[in-house]
Write a structure and sequence with these properties.
The complex is a heterodimer. Chain A is of the alpha/beta class. Helices cover 43% and strands 6% of the residues of chain A. Chain A contains 16 helices and nine strands. By secondary structure, chain B is α/β, with parallel strands linked by helices. In chain B, the strands form five sheets. In chain B, strands 1, 4, 5, 6, 7, 8, 11, 12 and 15 form a nine-stranded mixed β-sheet that branches. In chain B, β16 and β17 form a beta hairpin. In chain B, α12 packs parallel to α13. The N and C termini of chain B lie far apart (50 Å). Classes of the chains: A alpha/beta, B alpha/beta. Chains A and B meet through α14 and β1 of A and α3, α11 and α13 of B.
Chain lengths: 473, 484
Amino acid sequence: MEQLLSAFGRFHPLIVHLPIGSLVLAFIFEALSLRRSYRRLGIAVQPALLFGAFVSLLAGATGLALSEEGGYEDTTLAYHKYLGIVTMLLSFGLYFLRRHRTILKYEQRVRRPVRFFLFIPLLIVLSLAGHFGGSLTHGDDYLTNAFEFTGEVKVDPISKVQFMTQPDEAVLYADVIQPILESKCYPCHSSAKQKGDLRLDDAQWILKGGKDGKVLLPGMADSSSLFARMMLPHEHEDHMPPNEKPQPSSAELDLIRLWINEGATFDEKVKQLEDPKKAIELVNLLSDGIRKDSWLPAVDVSPASEGALKRLSESGIIALPMGANSNFLYVNFSNRRTVTNESLKALASLQDQVVSLRFSYCSFDNSDLSFLNDFKNLVSLYLDHTNVKDSSFQALEVIPNLKYLNVVFTTVGEKSIDPKKFPALEQVFAFETNITGETVARLRQSLPSLQVDTGGVILPRITSDTVVYRKKN
Amino acid sequence: MSAEELKNISRRHFLWESAAGIGSVALASLLGGCSKPNAAASLITDPMAPRVSHFPGKAKSVIFLHMAGAPSQLELFDFKPELKKLHNQACPPSLLEGKRFAFIRGTPKMLGPQADFLQRGDAGSWVSNHLPHFATIADEVSFLKGVYTDQFNHAPAQLFVQTGSPRLGRPSIGSWVTYGLGTENNNLPGFVVLTSGGKTPDAGKSVWGSGFLPSIYQGVQCRSEGDPVLFLSDPPGIHRDLKSRSIQAINDVNKLHHKEFHDPETLTRIAQYEMVFRMQISVPEVMDINKEPDYIHQLYGTTPGKASFANNCLLARKLVEQGVRFVQLFDWGWDSHGTDENLAIDIGFRNKCLEIDRSMTALILDLKQRGLLEETLVVWGGEFGRTPMQENRENVTNPYLGRDHHVEAFTMWMAGGGIKKGVSYGETDEIGYYPIQGKVSVHDVQATLLNQLGLNHEQLTYQFQGRPFRLTDVSGKVIQEIVA
C-alpha cells in the first residue's frame, strides 16, 4: 500500500502543471472577453475553471502522497501545501460564483469587471504555490543563482583548505572535512535539499543518518555508507556523488577515510590524531592542485617588448611566453649554434621576463656571463655543451632566483658554482665537467638543499644481462 | 570564394594569409622564431615552428616506450600473492560471465605470478626480479596500476592508446603534440618513431599517423640500420648546391600554387622540402651512435648497427637532447600467450624483459645525469594487460604458460617531465582482475601526458568534418595524483 501511495505521489510533478495552465488560460479568456470582439470567449471560462479545479484537487492529493516520502524542507513544504489547497478552494469557489449568477447580482455592465477582479487573488495564490513548489525541487537559490552574473565568483569551499598555512593546528572536521562535504555533498544533503532524508551540514544530522539508517560508523570508514558509497565504482547506481556532479579527488577521499577511521570526532585537532603526519600530507596534497606553477617567480612582469622578440626570432632564436597567459619567457639559442654580442643585446631588454634561458650546443663569441647580472627572474639556465669556462663566471655577480643550472660537457670547475652568486640554487647538473665529488660535499655545506649531479652513472654487469632463458628439457 | 575553397582554409592558412598580406613580422615573433636568419618568410609558413603552450608545462619532450603486444603486469609490477594460492584452480564463473576474451574459451585455470617480487627503493614500489636494473630506479617512477581500456585486440587497442580512438583516422599523440607545440630544433623532425623487435605494430603506421591533421605532423620513422631515413642522401653526381637551388625553385612554384588554392598540404610540402634539405646533414649525425663514448654503450648495452631496443633508447636520448619534441618507440614481442617458447610467460617473456631492462633504466639515468629528466616525460606501457587466468586457446590448455589479453586492468609507468617520483597510484583486487582504486582510462593517461607539456587536452582541438576533434574525444581527466 505504501509503495502504491508513493508511486501515486510521483505523478505530482506531472499533474501539478495542469491546473496552472488551465487556470491561467481561464483567466486569459476572462480578460479577453472584456473586449467586445472576444466576448464569445466568455463561455470557455467556466469549463476551464472546472477542469482546473478538479486537476488541482488531483494535484493536491498526489502532492500529499509525495510529501510522505520526506526529504523536503519543512517550512517551504508547509507553504506549498497550504497555498496549493487555497488555490484549489479558490478555483472551486470562483466556479460556483460564476455558475450561480444569482449570487452576483450586478448589472450586466459591471458583472464582467467584477468577475475579472475575482480572478486576481486566485492567480496570486497560484503563483506563490508554484514558486514554493519550485524551491522544493530546485533549491532556494535556484532563481537568484541565475542572476549572479556579476559580483563575487562562487568560491569552492575547498580553497580554504588549500590555503591552509598550519595544517597541524587545524580542527580536522571543521577546517578540512566540512569544506569537502560542503563542496561535494551539501547541494543535495543540507538545508536546501535532503535527498534520502540525509543532511550533512551539521554534526547532529550526520550522526542521525538518512532514510536507510546511520551513514557514519566512527572508526569504520569502509562500513560507513557516507564513505563507502563514494568509493563505489562510478557506474554503480549507488555511487555518490551522482556521476554528473563534481567528484571528490583521491586526496579528499583519503581525508574522509582518515577522519572516520580516527573516530569521526567533530572537535579534534589534526595534531591530536594518531597519525597527524598522514593528515598533513593529505592536506598538502589538496593544496598541490593550485600551486602547480610555484617554480615560476611569484611576481608580475610587464609583457615583453615586441621589438626585442622580433629581433630575436629574426635571428633564429626561439623566444616564447611560458604559457598563453604568462608574460614570462623561454628563450632558446640552440638553433643558432653561435651566441653573438648583438643577440645578447636584444636579450638584455627582456631581462625581467626571461625565466628559462637555453644556450645548449652554442658557442659564445664572448663567453663572459656578466650579461646575466640583471636577470632577476631567471630560474633555469642551460649552458651545457657550450664553451663557457671558469672565467666566464668571474664578472657574474648574482642571479637571485636561479634554481637550475646545467653545465654538462663544459670545462666549468668548482670555482664557478659560488653559492653567493646563486642563493636560490637547487639543482646543478655537472656531468663531464671539472666539478668533482669533493666540490659537491663543500657546496652542500653552504647550501644544504642543493643537489649537484656529477653524473657518470653505471649499471653493474649482472648475470641477467647475458642469460637467455630456454625451455627446460 | 566557393564553399570548396573555403573548406581548404584552416587556422594556419589564416596566419599565412594575414602575415603575407600585412607583411607584419610582428606575427612572426608571436609564432616564435626557429629558423635560419634569412628565413623570416619561411618561418611563417613553417607549421613546425615552436608555439606557446596553454599554460607553463614542466615537460618539453616526450619519449613514449610502447611495448607492443602488451606485457604482463602480473609478472612485472602488480604483485598478487593471493593469485599464487589459486594457481591451477579453475577460474570462478563470476569472472567469466558476460566477458569476451581474445582466445580463452570455456573455463580456464588461474595462473599464479611467474616471478618473484620485492618492494624497491624508499617508496616500496613492487617490481619483480625480471627487471633487476629497473628495480634500482623504481623511486624515479610513478606507476599507474589501474589503467583500463575497452579493446581486447592488438590493432584497435594500440590505436586507442596512440590516437585516442580504436578506429583508424585519428591523429596520434605525437601528431597532436607537434601540432600544438611545434618543435624546437628546426633541423630535425619534431616527431620521430623508432621500432624494434622485428615487426611493426599490428595497427600499422597509423599509430604514428597524422589522421586529419596536416601530414607534416605524422611521425618520421627512422631506421637504426643503414640510412636512418630512406632516400635521404644525395644521389651520386648531385651536389648540395644544385639540390638547394632546385628545392628553392620547387618551393617558389608551390607557394604560387598555395596562393591560388589555399591547400594546407601545399604548405606541408614546402616545409617538408626545406626540412629534408636540412635533415640531410643533421639526421645522419644524430642517428649515428658510433660516436658515443664506450661508457655510454656499456650503460645502455648497445651494439651499433643492430636494430635493437637498446639502440633506440640511446637514440631517443640523443634526439630529445637535440630538441626533438616527441619520440615514439615501439618494441614488439610482448604477446605472451604461451603458444610457443618465445611467447611463454616463463621463458620468452623473461628474455624480453632482460632485453629492455638495462636500456630503459639507462635511458632514465642518462637523461637524469644530463639534467634532462625533469623536462622529458618518459611513458612506458602496452596496449592492454594480461589475464590472471592461464590461456586455454579454444578450450585446450596452451603448450606453454601464457596469459590472454586483459582489458580491465594493467600497469603503465611515467617518469620525469614533472611527474611525482615513487608513487604507485591505483590498486587492483587480490587477483589483479579489476581495479578497486585509482582506476584510470587510456584517455586519462593521454590527458596527463598533454598536461605535462602545458597543453589542456580539452582545448587542443582541430576542426574537421564540421566539429572540433581532440585526442581525448569527450573524456579524459588529468591524473593529478601523480603530477608533481
